[in-house]
Amino acid sequence: MRKGFFLLVSLLVSCASQVEQSADFSPVEPVEPVELLRATLSQGQSQGGLNLSITVFEGEQLDGLTARMMKPVAFAETRYMPYLLKQVLEESGYWGAVRVVPQPDPTSELSLQGRILYSDGFQLEVHILCRDSTGRVWLDQVYQDRASLVDYPDEITVAEDPFRDLYVRLSNDLALSLKDQSAKTRSTLLDAALLRYAQALSAETFAGYLKPDEQDQLRIQGLPARDDPMYERVLRIRQSEYDFIDAVDEQYQVVFNRMKVPYAYWRKNSFEFEYYNRRLAAKSAQKRKRVDVRYESMLRVYKQFQDRRHNEDELRQMALSFDAELSPIITRVEGQLIQLVGNLEGQYERWRNLLKQLYRLEHN
């Protein structure tokens, strides 16, 4: 048993050290915090109350055994990060409703999608794509941030995310883009979002109102009469859609609240594991070109490895049980009470199909 312990720890230390041995190690210094741009009350009102929906992120591309081992962490991250971004955007005060959704939201004036390129407790890198309801790109950018020792205090806290600066920079970029939009442009985005939603319900009825231009951006060709019965029904159904999306968003809040503690511990342990082994690698490279495998060092590395695996197991169990523990979403549309069960992605897909069926039945 002892022999196996030394073999495992030696392997952990040596592997980590060999990866970093060619690079000089320097302690990670705290970076200057980024200040969040906040709208005053008058500024928030002047922005037109544009809604912004954040689609659940795509996970980091991993292969083989690594992908299987990191699946529970990826499940947490792809839902945790969008909700944390939502909180920062709401804190800025520049937006109307900010929601997290399983799929791109046809009701929203802005739709944001993200892909996690790299994530551990040490570094975070995400690609963000944000388009408005006409298809115009507001952001297409990779955001990076690196945690430091001060981001991981001895007493773990979930009040302040180690990579908050990344979300703040992203929020500030969106706020600056919003400030550049004229009142006429913001009004156009509101109309385009409503027409896109109408087309999602009945493409044949509302096909002529939006047309793509040479840049493949949608241009409004006209608006239905305000007293058009079909248009009025679209408005009523859209309000039901808002209620449903709000219920979905609340479920993601449940995910966020349940996962933030084990996820915070996983990242702290992952950071310490990586940080300590980079120090070992640098020390070895500078002195004897070999790994320091003193007993105390091995115990420390092994303890951090155990802690990280324990948090991975907790996240894995949470991922497996989450769908089964979701509360059914009960909502009303056109006087009908609807109950949807199952995972959020499935509920959302069934809801979209149901609305299309209801609209078609009304006009057949």
Biggest β-sheet description: 5 strands, mixed
- Total strands: the figure is 9
Q: Unreliable runs, pLDDT <50, ≥5 residues?
A: 1-30, 288-299
Strand content is: 5-15%
Quote the average pLDDT. 76
Question: Percentage of helical residues?
Answer: 55-70%
Q: How many angstroms separate the termini?
A: 74 Å
Cα-atom radius of gyration: 24 Å
Tell me the overall shape: elongated
Topology as a string of helices (H) and strands (E):
HHEHEEEEHHHEEHHEEH
Based on secondary structure, the structural category is alpha/beta
- Major sheet: arrangement of strands: 2-1-3-4-5
Number of helices: 9
Account of the 3D structure:
- The chain is α/β, with parallel strands linked by helices and 364 residues long.
- 55% of the residues lie in helices and 15% in strands.
- It has helices at residues 2-20, 41-46, 64-92, 164-179, 183-201, 203-206, 229-286, 295-325, 344-363; strands spanning 52-55, 98-101, 110-119, 123-132, 137-146, 210-212, 218-220, 329-333, 336-340.
- The strands form three sheets. A five-stranded mixed beta sheet has the order 2-1-3-4-5.
- α3 crosses α8, α5 (183-201) crosses α7 and α7 runs antiparallel to α9 (344-363).
- It is elongated.
